[in-house]
Design brief:
alpha+beta; 41% helix; globular; binds flavin mononucleotide
Length: 213
C-alpha cells in the first residue's frame, strides 16, 4: 500500500472546529461514495445531511437529552454480547483510550454528548428489515464517505452517538417509517485537541487472514 493512502492517513476526529464545510464539497463526497459496490447494484442507503443551523439545533437537542438522561434506543441496536474476537479488540481499544486520555477520560463522554461539535452530520438509513447484505453494502458506502472526505482534507467520525436519539433526527427530516437510521457520520475540520490525536492499532494480519496456496 502506498504511503499516501487515504486509508492509512484517515483516523477519527472527535472534536471539530466551528468552521463549516462547503456544501458543494459535501455533495461531491456523497456522490463519490455512491460508487460503492452493492448487491446487484441495490444501493440500499439514503442520506440525510444536517448542516448549519440544523446541525447546531440537533447538537443542542442531543446534549439536552443526555443531560435529562432521556431513555432512547437507536433504531439498529448494538448486540448485548459481541463474539470473542471483536470483544477482545473492543477491550484493547477501551484500554488504549483510557490510558491515552488519562485524567481527561471524561472528555470522551462529553464529546459524544455534544456530537463532537460536528458542523455537518450525515445520517444514513437503510430499509427496515434489511438483509445483512444491505448492511454490508451500506458499510462500504459509509467508508466511501470517510475516504472521499479524507482526500479533501476533511475529517470524519462514524459514531453510534449520532443515532442514539433517532426521534431528534426524525424531527428535522422527512424519514419514512419504512427506513431505519443505521449510522451517523460527523464531518468537519479538527481542532488541536488531544482527543483528535489518539492513534488506534489493528490486529496482526494473520489474526484476520488465512491463506492457502
Ligand atoms: C459503527 C461504528 C460506531 C462507532 N461509534 C462510535 C461512538 O459512538 N463514539 C466514538 O467515539 N467512536 C465511535 N466509532 C469510532 C471507532 O471507535 C473508531 O473508528 C475505531 O476506534 C478505529 O479508530 P479510527 O477510526 O481512528 O481508525 C464508531 C465506529 C463505527 C464504525
Amino acid at each position: 500500500m502506498s504511503n499516501n493512502s487515504s486509508q492509512l492517513s484517515r483516523h477519527s476526529a472527535r472534536n471539530f472546529s466551528d468552521k463549516s464545510v462547503d456544501l458543494e464539497q459535501l455533495k461531491e463526497i456523497i456522490s463519490e461514495a455512491q460508487h460503492a459496490p452493492s448487491w446487484e447494484n441495490a444501493q440500499p442507503w439514503k442520506v440525510y445531511l444536517a448542516v448549519g443551523e440544523t446541525a447546531k439545533q440537533i447538537r443542542k437537542a442531543n446534549a439536552d437529552a443526555v443531560d435529562q438522561q432521556k431513555k432512547s434506543w437507536a433504531e439498529v441496536t448494538p448486540p448485548q454480547e459481541w463474539a470473542a474476537k471483536p470483544q477482545k479488540n473492543i477491550d484493547d481499544w477501551l484500554k488504549r483510550m483510557a490510558t491515552y486520555m488519562g485524567d481527561d477520560v471524561q472528555l470522551f463522554g462529553e464529546a459524544g454528548k455534544n456530537l463532537y461539535n460536528a458542523p455537518a452530520i450525515a445520517y444514513i438509513t437503510i430499509p427496515k428489515d434489511s438483509t445483512q447484505f444491505s448492511a454490508y453494502d451500506t458499510g462500504a458506502f459509509g467508508y466511501g464517505i470517510l475516504l472521499a472526505a479524507e482526500e479533501r482534507g476533511i475529517s470524519s467520525l462514524p459514531a453510534y452517538s449520532f443515532v442514539r436519539f433517532p426521534e431528534i433526527v426524525r424531527q428535522y427530516f422527512n424519514i419514512s417509517e419504512d427506513e431505519v437510521i443505521l449510522m451517523g457520520i460527523g464531518l468537519g475540520y479538527p481542532t488541536d485537541a488531544k482527543i483528535n490525536k489518539m492513534e488506534t492499532v489493528r490486529e496482526p494480519l494473520d489474526a484476520a487472514l488465512q491463506i492457502r496456496d
